[in-house]
Amino acid sequence: MEATAALTRECTVYEEIEVIMEQLHDFVSTIQRPRLLDESWTARMHEASLEIETRIEELRIAFAEKREAWSDTLDEIADTLSNYAKELSEGSNSNRLQSLYRSLEENYEDLFQYLKGLQKDFAEWKPTSMQHLKPVNYKRNLFHVFNGCLAIVTYEFILGHFWSLVAVLTMLAIAVSLEVSRRFSDRWNDFLVNKVFGGISRPFERHKVNGSTYYLIGLAAILLLFPAHAIEAGVLVLTFADPAASVLGKLFGKKKLYRDKSWLGSGVFFGVATLAIFIFVGIVRPDLAWFSALGIAACVGLAGMLTELFTVHLDDNFTVPVVCAAVASVLLV
Question: Is 65 in contact with 78 (CB distance < 8 Å)?
């Protein structure tokens, strides 16, 4: 009986933390772009920060005897929330608020990483609502588009297939060496995440393989497996559809379709991907009737949209170009 009670109590702790994490995710996502001139927004964020802080304090009191690795991080989050609320009420210095926002981002992902690791050792707890933070990042989106365009131009007009593969494999080897080396040094990891890739990295990439590495793996895979036009089609979809869906979906996509993906974001992905492939097919296959080109484009766009929508455990920088290139290789024969 005592063992059962202890297990139930432990589940209660983690379930309460999961609720806090869900509230914190929504809060941090909302304060990325503070609307300091909007008094109603300021009031809501002030109330929300104090509400989450209070919930953390209640958890601390209820389970005061149970101090674990997550406890210190929760303490830091509570202190940051208190300072955020204080800043909103006393003057709303935008630089200070951004600094507090970044601190909450980092602490959230640190706690997320720890809690996910508990699943391996504590099977009774099944977190369902926790999600990584994916803030709007225009620098990352522009970098995404630039790299995709550069890859296509370089492949088509400069390097060709063989030397493009050599270049991608070389960059992939460098990326993998960085991924491995930063696991052995927190200081090196912080330098890479904050200084080298700070403008384009996502908060959770401090703990996980970053999207650029997955992108290089995807490029290597399609270069090895598919013909030229299929390769270019796969890169085109990722280059234009993914950033467009990311920005518009996060800014305006209120109604969710699956997990954190919205109906609007998925619709934008499909529309942009279809348009990009339709134009591309018109250029590389001028012999095809427009309705045939549109059918091919719609099939590739739909495949990319569904892949992006349901990619959970991998990264869509890898899955989207591979799936789209595979579909294009069948249709563009």
Answer: no
